[in-house]
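> call design_seq(struct)
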């Protein structure tokens, strides 16, 4: 059995930083976690990549091709679609190898359409599962963006859309907590507590526009709360305990190590006939 985390999220949310931090943290635990760059438009990253999709196809090459007329977004979609073509799948399978008990993080592109309403990442999940991978999605959101109530609701609905689209175990992570000031951290913490819909409504009751849609905002927040559909894990990459907690939850979602053989040891019991007889001194 092999394990895969699809690290998803908007551009600039901290996906590559998350992968680098988890990889480095795993080293302190004497554990190997590999990372794959799956972003054809990536410019730089700080982790040690198992392999790089840009060796197969690069978004710049697609945009410069004379027989194509793609912009940056269209070129990125073309690259991901090509990866799911027979030649792309064969290349991906060869790069992944056939090692057992691998845990691999796939650093995915930052184009949100790939996860919310296109099926290319869904096909990626199905392909990995056919290769005996257990897959979970780690959806990354910038905590600084989520400190505002309206943006918190927007981000939560986006996370929910990704969850519904991919249909795999899912973790939502708020990154860059270390960059927030005290007031912003306290605001985030209030959203992580119960009564989310009430908090959203109170923040949305400022303008006439927001008052008009107060019931809608309350209903959306109540759905998120009552069905426990979206929950967040705050991540501070400067704190080892924060990284440990997140890795534990990711392992739980993947059931990492559940299929490992139980280590047993045979014990030799003494033969009763070989025991020395009791000596009677009377």
């Amino acid at each position: 059995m092999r394990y895969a985390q699809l690290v998803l999220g908007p551009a600039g949310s901290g996906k590559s930083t998350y992968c680098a931090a988890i990889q480095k943290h795993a080293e302190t635990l004497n554990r190997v976690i590999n990372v794959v760059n799956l972003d054809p438009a990536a410019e730089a990253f700080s982790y040690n990549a198992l392999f790089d999709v840009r060796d197969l196809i690069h978004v710049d090459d697609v945009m410069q091709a004379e027989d194509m007329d793609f912009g940056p977004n269209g070129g990125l979609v073309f690259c991901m679609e090509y990866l799911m073509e027979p030649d792309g799948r064969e290349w991906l399978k060869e790069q992944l190898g056939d090692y057992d008990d691998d845990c691999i993080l796939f650093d995915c592109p930052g184009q949100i359409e790939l996860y919310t309403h296109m099926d290319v990442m869904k096909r990626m999940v199905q392909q990995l599962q056919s290769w005996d991978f257990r897959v979970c999605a780690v959806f990354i959101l910038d905590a600084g963006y989520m400190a505002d109530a309206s943006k918190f609701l927007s981000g939560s609905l986006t996370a929910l859309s990704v969850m519904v689209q991919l249909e795999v175990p899912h973790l939502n992570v708020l990154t860059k907590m270390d960059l927030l000031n005290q007031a912003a951290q306290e605001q985030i913490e209030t959203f992580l507590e119960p009564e989310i819909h009430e908090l959203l409504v109170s923040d949305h009751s400022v303008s006439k526009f927001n008052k008009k849609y107060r019931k809608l905002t309350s209903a959306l927040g109540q759905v998120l709360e009552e069905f426990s559909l979206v929950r967040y894990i705050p991540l501070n990459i400067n704190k080892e305990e924060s990284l440990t907690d997140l890795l534990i939850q990711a392992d739980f979602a993947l059931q990492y190590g559940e299929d490992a053989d139980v280590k047993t040891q045979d014990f030799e019991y003494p033969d009763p006939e070989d025991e020395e007889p009791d000596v009677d001194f009377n």
